[in-house]
User: Which sequence fits this backbone?
């Protein structure tokens, strides 16, 4: 069985990644989404084990010590990390796995899994990013300013990604992400087993036996 494809979706906070991911997983149900652990407090509707596993700083540091995290990073004053066992298990079972993580974590995972696909989600403009961050009403003006500053720094790393998703229309964005992953499945490099089999079939194939 071939290994699943690991797709890492990053983007500015407020780019609408969460909304894109939710709509994507609703429409395309075969993917395994990794649920991260974080030390930040839950927002309005967020539930333990659905958006995140919410943990204290001490609990998070214990996970680091016990090597339970594939990667972790600090973002806007909180820890965020990817549980290792779920990702490794799903990939081993041939499932396509999606991580929705920030840029530092994406870089670390790419080093461990060089064939991971890196997708960057951005709104069409910086003005629009600020509008979306302000209108969701979940951060104070100071927190919004920090997130805008962080986004400015993240923009410097967009070139390290394989694909860009400009989140203008949600539906198009969702379908584009599906297309990206399907295209990766069709990549010749990822199909060495198949191309090898075709080559060896040519070596033994004889037309005269067919008549
Ligand atoms: P938020 O607080 O808005 O839910 O997330 C803040 C940032 O942390 C987002 O860019 C999100 O993608 C990122 N993030 C969420 N989970 C993880 C994780 O497990 N590891 C890393 N490195 N970043 C994460």
Assistant:
């Amino acid at each position: 069985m071939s290994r699943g494809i690991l797709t890492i979706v990053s983007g500015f906070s407020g780019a609408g990644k969460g909304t894109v991911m939710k709509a994507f997983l609703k429409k395309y149900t075969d993917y395994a989404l990794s649920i991260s652990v974080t030390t930040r407090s839950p927002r309005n509707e967020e539930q333990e084990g659905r958006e995140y596993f919410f943990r204290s700083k001490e609990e998070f540091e214990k996970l680091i010590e016990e090597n339970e995290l594939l990667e972790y990073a600090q973002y806007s004053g909180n820890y965020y990390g990817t549980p290792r066992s779920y990702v490794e298990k799903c990939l081993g079972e041939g499932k396509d796995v999606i991580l929705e993580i920030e840029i530092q974590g994406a870089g670390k995972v790419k080093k461990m899994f060089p064939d991971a696909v890196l997708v960057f989600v951005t709104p069409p403009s910086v003005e629009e990013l600020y509008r979306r961050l302000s209108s969701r009403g979940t951060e104070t003006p100071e927190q919004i300013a920090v997130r805008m500053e962080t986004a400015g720094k993240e923009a410097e790393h967009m070139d390290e990604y394989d694909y860009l998703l400009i989140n203008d229309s949600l539906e198009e964005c969702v379908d584009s992400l599906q297309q990206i992953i399907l295209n990766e499945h069709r990549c010749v490099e990822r199909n060495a087993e198949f191309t090898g089999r075709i080559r060896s079939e040519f070596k033994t194939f004889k037309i005269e036996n067919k008549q």
In short: The chain has eight helices and nine strands. The two ends are 35 Å apart (CA to CA).
